[in-house]
Amino acid sequence: MSSELIIFDTTLRDGEQSPGASMTVDEKVRIARILEKLGVDVIEAGFPAASVGDFEAVQKVASQIGDSRICALARANPGDVSRAAEAIRGARASRIHTFIATSPIHMQAKLRMSPEDVFEKAVAAVKQARASTDDVEFSAEDAGRSDEDFLCRIFEAVIDAGASTVNIPDTVGYTMPEQFGEMFARLMNRIPNADKVVFSVHCHNDLGVAVANSLAAVKAGARQVECTINGLGERAGNASLEEIVMAVRTRQDFFPCDSRLDTTHILAASRLVSNITGFPVQPNKAIVGANAFAHEAGIHQDGVLKQRDTYEIMRAEDVGWSANQIVLGKHSGRNAFRERMVALDIEFSSEAELNLAFDRFKELADKKHEIFDDDLQVLAGDSAASQRDETLRFVSLKTVSQTGDAPVAELTLEKAGSEETAKTTGDGLVDASFRAVDDIVPGDRALLLYSVNAITAGSDSQGEVSVRLQENGRIVNGQGTDTDIVVASVKAYINALNKLQLSPQRFNPQSGETV
Fold first, then answer.
1. Can you spell out the DSSP letters for 44-113?
2. Which of 13, 357, 396, 413 is 20 to 30 Å from 45 at the Cα level?
3. 474-491 pLDDT, tens digit each
4. Are 420 and 435 in contact (CB under 8 A)?
5. d(CA 41, CA 34)
6. pLDDT over 70 percentage in the chain
7. Under 8 Å between Cβ of 277 and 233
8. What is the Cα–Cα distance from 412 to 140, expressed in whole angstroms?
9. In terms of Cα–Cα distance, which of 291, 264, 241 is closest to 10?
10. What is the CATH T-level fold of the domain 392-502, as seen in this structure?
């Protein structure tokens, strides 16, 4: 059995299926580049049959990433497989990942197909995919609730048809770790040609055991783990890449394998995905949360000061946290700014993008005395976002508020090239400002989420606001930052509106419904 653990990242595909987490083509390329730098073996870049945008994203990632294998998802039907093959044609190393549901409930209620029909479609899809690429993966959707005899039969057949990886997913997060590990071991022992393929695992977190199930599968013999940055994904998310990788590496006494990842880029990848999708990382998140290596209790602090590994089982530096205390300010030059960005794994696609980021840095430095690394991470994301072709742009906001009177907001936006102004009142400054936006951009939408987070400490900290909007069945997340929390709120609302207008509808591969 191989000692190499293959890391298959599906942030760009399954992660994007989180409500509101849709990404543009350029944003997918930016994430793919940091995944490549991280050393991810396989990047599942998308589901080409979902939409024209998904197809273009997979195609562009395939043409620009050279060190990671680029994978496209396809349902087990000829149209999907052909579309996937076309999208990955320009990749240095490619893979087609085809799947079909195998559990009784999925076959009967969703597919309305017999087991024999499912069997035939699975084999045909693998053969078709194998004609386009030498690397084909087959997944039995909802394997955790499937009949094991049927799984053995279908896996044996797809291996004979040319699959080089077979994936056993816990699609709905139903199984428990001991149960899942035992299931893996039985299947690997029962399938006659199991030695010809890599066994893979893909777990969802509905009951909070996605990482535990994935690690149980690795212990049982799986040598590929499908995961996402920050555990992003449908419903409660997927197994978290950073937790899987660091668990295996930290416990080499327990796991007989390891990945090839350069884990010092984990934090940068986490920050980038959070910034692009608008999904903040909770402070107590393992590995990448702000509190992951913080010690407040006196007994803990005393222990760490005497010997680090009394309370730290891994080094913060190994996953990208830096002890560097360099703080930039308004007197810092372009070279110092560039060098700090490089140290933070922040890359710019052009000199123009760097110049724009530096200009924003100078604007921020006039408002904020000290600028920390977290400020720079957000600033880089804002600079990249500002280069998109957006129909709405923030121009100015004037607010008036005093006890006993209704707050007033006077907002000016640039809309399709011309400026429009609205003046409204509300229950508070944020409410008044949002009503002003609605006056300029009318629509039947609902605000599902409004969240505020301070990026750094201090009263002059930038505020990071996340909003979630729903309109005509579609959900998007928006993010905005500013030292003025009301301005940050308006920017987040505008960011979400731009996504509603720009993001095309796409299909969810599991359900076939538009999202």
1. EEE-TTS-HHHHHHHHHHHHH--SSEEEEEEESSHHHHHHHHHHTTT-SSEEEEEEEE-SHHIIIIII--
2. 357
3. 888 998 999 999 999 999
4. no
5. 12
6. 92
7. no
8. 52
9. 241
10. Double Stranded RNA Binding Domain (3.30.160)
